[in-house]
Design goal:
There is one protein chain. It is built from 18 helices and 18 strands. It is an alpha/beta fold. Helix 1 runs parallel beside helix 18 and helix 8 packs across helix 13. It is globular and about 70 Å long.
């Protein structure tokens, strides 16, 4: 139950963006209630003991933080610790039967240059790499400060960016840019992967959804660095929840919203508490759900053809020990950052072609992270040597799993493990811990699982295709909601989740911007 029947603001969904909006609005003195369908808050940003008999707390869905602005952390007084990973990435390769790999340090130094030279035979690709990412960083420095401001026009951003950079990232399909600026297949693939995380698209798609995904992965706080939250993703949710509650917001869990009915100057929200329907009125409703789901809550016609489609395979492992790699690199170096598997450029192109034709890619491209190397606190009192391992597979759209979800999931897990085994001295299975029931500690999530668990349509982790974080030059920006990129077709209902123009990932940006639109309207 809620404490009152009318609020200034009702927020549907207690994911991190909903909590962010609640904290800002409650701090501004507004009456705020957050309604959450699940029995817990946090949405995808949660930590849990996933394996019986083991105290380790895993970030079950989202797993790294890049886009969360430092300003939000400061504004809301969030007690969180985001830690840098010592390794940016490691990519094991096998060329001419000889195992090797490419190491990229988090702060690139001589070891990175030497690794590029050993792989490619010269310094040319490393210089191309440095030039390209310097160009991207300069674009990030321009865009990042605008993410918590009213939307700039595209021309405003373009005027501050070198024409070549604008063309390479915003105009030309990213595949063309990569092919023009790099020659080595491994290097090309590493660059391309940031365009494909959670996004099923051709690198040559003229719609440029891959370019937009790439940009979002590289602009967080002007650096694009992906950091590990100490205590897991649940620590971010806990800090946001505390901020919202301390400011006076109400949070109601187990409140599955059934409908939102906009009216003249207010909206009615109806939800079910597990026993009965409940209702309240609010001057404004913030929807921290996917736009497709919002359409259903508003009573709009159901249209499956517009439903988003997720495209990822997430696997959590618990290991008794880290495996040794055939290249001889220290596992604590290789696994500390992003370890790329079957993500050469040619492999990515082939995998997309297979998936687009309805076939599960083989080899399956993906990447691996070992968060416990950066944040051992998540292990609890696990025995020495224990580690978590997270695999994130790409080019695995929901449609591949429709006919046989469990069978195809098992095969996808097998192929993911095989892509790692190809570079290991010993099979990964020999390192995987067993739970209290004697079963391997493996938890896999396909898009269908994400939809079932979190009500993200199609299991799409961004709630739909990402948009450019600026407005087209001819876009209407007359209302506060339009200026902040959170408008819907109803004045009383605003987006505050990943489906907002600058949504996507664990950032709090959409929540902040929805809150600012509300405050500007009062």
């Amino acid at each position: 139950m809620t404490s009152r029947s009318r609020y200034d603001v009702a927020i549907v969904g207690a994911g991190h963006n909903g909590l962010t909006a609640a904290a800002y609005l409650a701090k501004a003195g507004l009456s705020v209630v957050v309604l959450e369908r699940l029995g817990n808050v946090g949405g995808a940003a949660v930590s849990a003991e996933a394996f019986a008999g083991h105290p380790t707390r895993l970030s079950r869905y989202s797993y790294l933080v890049s886009l969360l602005p430092d300003q939000i952390v400061t504004d809301l007084g969030l007690d969180i610790d985001l830690v840098s990973r010592p390794t940016a990435s490691y990519t094991p390769v096998d060329r001419d039967g000889k195992p090797g790999g490419l190491l990229v340090e988090r702060v690139e130094g001589e070891q990175t240059r030497q690794s590029f030279h050993a792989l490619t035979g010269s310094d040319e690709e490393y210089e191309a790499w440095r030039t390209f990412y310097t160009d991207v960083a300069r674009l990030g420095w321009v865009v990042a400060p605008t993410l918590l401001q009213p939307l700039p026009r595209a021309s405003q951003i373009r005027s501050q960016v070198h024409p070549t950079t604008w063309n390479d990232i915003v105009v030309a399909p990213l595949g063309e840019t990569i092919e023009r600026r790099f020659t080595d297949d491994t290097i090309r693939g590493i660059v391309a992967t940031d365009a494909l995380i959670g996004t099923f698209a051709s690198l040559h798609d003229p719609a440029l959804v891959q370019n937009r995904c790439f940009l979002y992965h590289l602009i967080g706080n002007g650096t694009g660095e992906w950091r590990v939250p100490v205590g897991g993703m649940g620590a971010v949710t806990d800090a946001l929840t505390k901020s919202a509650l301390d400011a006076g917001a109400e949070i109601v869990t187990g409140a599955g919203v059934r409908s939102i009915r906009p009216g003249a100057g207010a909206a009615e929200v109806v939800w079910h508490d597990g026993y009965n329907d409940q209702g309240l009125q609010a001057d404004v409703v913030l929807a921290n759900v996917a736009p497709w789901v919002l359409g259903l809550l508003l009573g709009e016609p159901h249209d499956d053809t517009t439903k988003p489609e997720g495209a990822q395979l997430k696997i959590n492992f618990l290991l008794d020990r880290l495996p040794q790699l055939r290249s001889g690199v220290d596992p604590e170096v290789a696994f500390a950052g992003t370890l790329h598997l079957s993500e050469g450029y040619g492999e990515l192109l082939s995998a997309y072609g297979a998936a687009a034709a309805g076939r599960l890619p083989d080899p399956l491209p993906g990447e691996v992270y070992c968060h416990s190397l950066t944040d051992p606190s998540i292990l609890g009192d696990a025995p020495a040597g224990t580690h978590t391992l997270t695999y994130f597979g790409i080019h695995t759209p929901a449609s591949l799993f429709e006919a046989d979800p469990e069978g195809t999931k098992q095969e996808a897990v097998r192929r993911a493990i095989a892509s790692l085994d190809a570079h290991l001295v010993e099979p990964l299975q020999t390192c995987i811990a067993r739970d209290a029931h004697g079963q391997p500690c493996i938890e896999a999530k396909i898009p269908q699982d994400i939809e079932r668990d979190l009500a993200m349509p199609g299991g799409h982790i961004f709630h739909g295709d990402l948009e450019w974080p600026w407005a087209p030059d001819r876009a209407r920006l007359e209302t506060p909601a339009e200026r902040w990129g959170v408008q819907t077709s109803h004045d009383e209902v605003l987006l505050c989740g990943s489906g907002a123009r600058r949504g996507g990932a664990v950032s709090g940006i959409a929540g902040h911007n929805a809150a600012q639109a509300v405050l500007e309207s009062r």
